[in-house]
Amino acid sequence: MKKIFNSNQAPQPIGAYNQSVFINNMLYTSGQIAINPKTNKTEFGDISHETRLVMQHLEAILAEAELRFEHVIKVSIFVKDISNFAEVNKVYSEYFNQATAPAREMVEVADLPRHANVEISLIAAKY
């Protein structure tokens, strides 16, 4: 059975979707951008700040499903400027143990919702 998990510590969806869906012991998150959940405004700044805020949103969503970053098996990262790879990767790496880190891609895109500079989604497994 499909179960929906939404956290009030992450921004509420801005369209017809939920923050995450849990089915068959797998959690699929929607892409998260640097929206302040208290103000519903996008927080622009340096890419490290945006990435950290996005990772905090994902952490809150994982917690709603009683999961942690160690349960993550796949991450998708979308950036508007691939030259920010090192800064995004530095913040991202704070959340994972390198030896057990999930599979991942980072892709440059033309634009993101609300003109954010980074969007991240993930898949986690409850085991």
TrEMBL record:
One Pfam match: Ribonuc_L-PSP
Any one GO CC term of the record: cytosol
InterPro entries from the UniProt entry: RidA, RutC-like_sf, YjgF/YER057c/UK114
Domain of life where this protein originates: Bacteria
GO MF annotation: an example: deaminase activity
SUPFAM superfamilies reported in the protein's UniProt record: YjgF-like (SSF55298)
Matching Gene3D superfamilies: RutC-like (3.30.1330.40)
CDD domains found in the cross-reference section: YjgF_YER057c_UK114_family
Segments passing through the bilayer: none
Family: Belongs to the RutC family.
NCBIfam families associated with the record: Rid family detoxifying hydrolase
Protein name: 2-iminobutanoate/2-iminopropanoate deaminase
Species assigned in the record: Psychroflexus salarius
Taxonomy of the source species: Bacteria, Pseudomonadati, Bacteroidota, Flavobacteriia, Flavobacteriales
